[in-house]
Specification:
The structure holds two protein chains of two kinds. Chain A has one helix and two strands. Chain A is α+β, with helices and mostly antiparallel strands.
Chain lengths: 24, 192
């Protein structure tokens, strides 16, 4: 029986904008 | 006389066929699935609103950093999880004829402690969401951490689910147990 390897996707971090607003 | 008259929902022009007494109209319109939806992107200041059908075109056009992947069983590899501050990792998983938004969010508390939250949201109604289940799993180094739940429907706020801890929750120490070179691999499986 073969085991299917799940597809992998690299996801880059995005700055949490709400935090940026609080800092302003 | 008004008590005996059935009024159309204000979203009748969008496709809602419900008519109801004026006393129930406002309550229905608040949850009507034909109303306009806000952009589901977490942590953004996007003010976009639109119909359910317009959500995916909006995400691909205005939030082009969001990758879409096909398949029921995928690996969501969040990179650079040790960056200081609050961050989101967002992608779309397309399978079983629908699309899901996968979100990993990192928050920092006032003491500098870090918490991670991972959740799956269906780009669809609550009725549709009931047909699906998702599983998030961290694996590695002879350890396993799993969360299984029904995906959030589009009208439920991800921020609220995170606040209620209705998601996979773990701290920075746990993340380090599973991370490799600052990258955290999350296996996401969606079933019907």
């Amino acid at each position: 029986r073969t085991h299917r390897v799940p597809k992998e996707v690299r996801v880059e971090p995005q700055k949490f904008a709400e935090e940026l607003i609080h800092r302003l | 006389v008004a008590n005996f008259v059935l009024f159309p929902c204000r979203y009748a022009c969008m496709g809602c066929e419900i008519t109801l007494p004026h006393t129930e109209k406002a309550d229905h319109e608040e949850v009507c699935e034909f109303r306009l939806y806000s952009c589901p992107c977490p942590g953004t200041v996007c003010k976009w609103q639109g119909t359910m059908d317009a959500i995916m075109p909006h995400l691909t056009k205005m939030h082009e950093y969001i990758t879409t992947i096909e398949g029921e069983d995928i690996i969501f590899l969040a990179t650079s999880i040790n960056l200081v501050g609050a961050y989101d990792w967002v992608m779309i998983q397309s399978c079983l004829g629908v699309r899901f938004m996968l979100v990993l969010q990192k928050q920092e508390d006032h003491n500098g402690g870090q918490q991670f939250f991972a959740v799956v949201q269906l780009l669809g109604t609550s009725k549709e969401a009931e047909n699906f289940a998702y599983r998030l799993e961290l694996k590695g180094n002879r350890r396993r951490l799993t969360w299984e739940a029904t995906p959030l429907p589009i009208h439920e706020d991800i921020a609220k689910a995170i606040k209620n801890r209705d998601c996979l929750t773990f701290d920075a120490n746990t993340a380090l147990l599973f991370a490799e070179n600052d990258d955290l691999s999350i296996n996401v499986v969606i079933t019907k």
